[in-house]
Amino acid sequence: MHAFDPVREDKFTFGLWTVGNPGRDPFGPSVRPTMDPNHIVRRLAELGAYGVNLHDNDLVPFGASASEQSAIVKAFKQTLADTGMVVPMATTNLFSHPIFKDGAFTANDPKVRAFALQKTMRAIDLGAELGAKIYVFWGGREGVEADACRDPRTAWHRMRDAIDFLCGYVRDNNYGMKFALEAKPNEPRGDLYLPTTGHMLHFISTLEHGDMVGVNPEVAHEVMAGLSFAHNVAQAMACDKLFHIDLNGQKIGRYDQDLRFGSEDQKGAFLLVRLLEGTAGGPGYEGPRHFDAHAYRTEDEEGVWAFATGCMRTYKILKARAQAFDADPEVTALIAEQTDRELTPLLTRGYTIQKAAKLKELEIDVDAVASRGLGYERLDQLMVEHLLGVRGG
Ligand code: DIG
Ligand code: MN
Ligand code: MN
User: Fold this and answer.
1) Does 3 reside within a domain?
2) Residue 355 structural domain
3) Mean pLDDT over residues 247-271, rounded?
4) Is the pLDDT of residue 36 over 90?
5) What was the pLDDT predicted at 337?
6) Given its phi and psi angles, is residue 237 left (phi above 0), alpha (psi -120 to 50 degrees) or beta?
7) Atom of ligand 1 nearest to the CA of 218
């Protein structure tokens, strides 16, 4: 056992669709054979993963009969029992079948919206049967090209009605599930409704049962929008709404690449892991570390498992680097210098008439404050040196 070998306690998970991705893309067919879900579970267990996630149709083919579903699920549950792997999260495929070509919950045709609810309820039942306590909604087709086709407000109301309805279904069945909403700015539709985690956090505040609904931010999706992923995750954590997370890599300004975690923006990945692991002192994230990513199209099955191992190892290496960074006395001293403990009580925990009087009387040497150097160049250089492994062991 080496320092960065993944273990169950790391809570690393993969969607069946990630390592099972056959390498198909808009310009070419699959390059790898389809993997059996039970084989995926066994191989991931051998690599040290904690669990798998799934869309309904990743396990049960679309249109399978009840008896076929029963046999598939029985065998899958046996594989989970044999390997000790769990299913923390489940979700619905509301984007592959042509019926969803104009959306699912937001589609103009009420028969499509009815079928989307029906399919999701059945997928929730399957997720509950497999023990999932987090249910993700990614609206891959909830969007538009010809914007005149519906009032965007109508789409928003339809989405809200669907999530409220499904919250009711989960509560009625005492499934004990929480919902996690996943944003994306575009792709496969020209524009997707609710494009960023920020939009989702507002949307949740309008729901009937918002207490059971949080977010599932994905690295690639916020980077596609040109945003700081760590900042979006931090906002979700600050309002206790980070219910799940999709980890991967992404180059800015590209289509959704879903690359191996940490394979692109290492500084961004470092700051994200530092946040999730709480090494800087704030509360960390306790949920599964889910890799919603897939191997390059160039890879065979061996390459797929190298991809999966790389995701987990890079996360653990970055966690060790973050721990060393936040234990570095020069780093902590530079960060501490920015905190004026005397003034802080005046600036936090709300208004009082006494605070207002004190602040109005405060003598502030504006020129002296303005001319002060903050030492951020040294601080960021220290981070780079920890990241490059020349500091902190
Ligand atoms: C894509 O980023 C989406 C789908 O793969 C899935 O519905 C969701 C769950 O992680 N992510
Ligand atoms: Mn993605
Ligand atoms: Mn995702």
Assistant:
1) no
2) 329-387
3) 97
4) yes
5) 77
6) alpha
7) 2
Full-model pTM: 0.97
Q: Residues 13-31: what's their mean pLDDT?
A: 98
Residue 193 pLDDT greater than 90, yes or no? yes
Q: Catalytic annotation on 58? A: yes
**Which amino acid is it at 236?**
A
CA dist 262 to 100, 136, 266, 270, 313, Å? 33, 23, 5, 8, 10
Q: Looking at residue 229, what is its pLDDT? A: 98
Instruction: For ligand 1, say whether the CB of 256 is within 6 Å of any of its atoms.
Output: no
118-159 pLDDT, tens digit each: 999 999 999 999 999 999 999 999 999 999 999 999 999 999
Same domain, 16 and 115: yes
pLDDT of 340 higher than 80: no
Protein residue with its CA nearest to atom 4 in ligand 1: 138
Token pair of 65 as six digits? 């009969």
* Residue 142 near ligand 1, beta carbon < 6 Å: no
End-to-end Cα spacing for the chain: 19
Among 55, 221, 294, 386, the one annotated catalytic: 55
For residues 309 and 333, state if they share a domain.
no
For residue 217, report the distance from its CA to the centre of ligand 2, in Å: 10
Tell me the C-alpha distance between 249 and 236, whole Å.
Answer: 20
- Among 12, 94, 289, 292, residue to substitute to test ligand 1 (most atoms within 8 Å of Cβ): 292
Which one of the ligands is nearest to 53 CA?
A: 1
Output the domain CATH number for residue 316: 3.20.20.150
Output phi, psi for 272, to 5 deg. -65, -50
Q: For this structure, is 55 an active site residue?
A: yes
